[in-house]
Amino acid sequence: MASDDFHRAALEHLDALYNFAMYLTRNPPEADDLVQETYLRAFRFSHRFQPGTHLRAWLFQILRNTFLTFYRLRERESALAEDGVPAWDAPMFHDAPEESSGAVEAHTDLERALRRLPEEFRTVLLLAEVEGMALEDVARVLACPVGTVKSRIFRAKERLRGLLRDYTKE
Amino acid sequence: MSDHSPDSDDALGARLRTELRRYPAPAYLRGSIAEAAEPPRARPGWLAPTLGAAATALLLLLASIPFLPRILPGDPTERLVRSVVAEHTRALMWGARRPEVMPTGLPWLTQESGIGLRKYFAGDDRLVFVGAEPVYLEGRRGMALYYRDGDGHLVNYTVLAWPGLAIPEARRVPIENRFRPALMSDSGFSAWVWRQGDLACFIVSDMVSESDVERFKDYFVRLRLSTDPVPAN
User: Which domains does chain A have, with CATH numbers?
Assistant: First the structure.
């Protein structure tokens, strides 16, 4: 694929990637950084993309891996904090503002419940249900077998239902 | 067959698709990513070899500078004036290297410069004494006394041991029917040049305009009458 064609095709998925980034980070500046970093990596390694495979899944895979890289880095830094209290609201990127200053609030029970899911459950629901991605593509993004994807979707929905029931009781 | 109860997988999937807000990418983000995607503009093919050749030529020129003949005035007096003016400029920009207070610094100055002062101009209401220091110009030792006038002009009186310095007749200016120093100029500075025994004397300042010349004459008279340099040996 020619470089210009690749860039054009990649930019067609910008809105979907940004939406995914927003649900992962819950913070617009961090989502900006995450998407920007995703595209920089995609452009830098465009020669590794195999034409004929799904560009969309490839981009989502880069975004998720980038998120996890920084997320794990943040977790490790939190674990090393002197007071031993993990700073979950620390920014994912060092130059991003604190989450509390720009975090997007959840407006519905569904959003609130989705936020409380572990990342692997949240991601699988966002990709399969919200983005409507085929299970094979979701498996490519998560780098796991399709069977694992199915099982995660099932468990994620179970967990989500339980959380929604809790909100209803409140 | 799909389960359509409110708690079913399908219903939950439908809620996720319809109830969750979608966040479109901001325009500025799209712009910055599109900008990053643009390939760098190709340079013209001739640019690299031209720049390379120009850089090589510049390097050769820089390397050959020490071997190029210097453009110096052929006349020794003019060359000496240029050196005195250069020293004056340096003092003007950076101040004296080691300004001495008079008269306490005079013995050391005499020892370093090889020039003694039987009397010296200590300043008055027009010129304020700033300091003095030994100088070394054109291979000769000497002494420089610095003054500043009310308008901020730095006036530099320099004496060098230079027997037989030629004073250009065409530039001599009669002052008060007593003195005939030469008025020379270099790099935007004026200089009075005269000989006092085996010493070459200079008064330098940036007073170059017509109106300044009369004042510069006055400064010459003040310094000339009140300063009496002699070789220290």
Answer: 1-104 (1.10.1740.10), 107-170 (1.10.10.10)
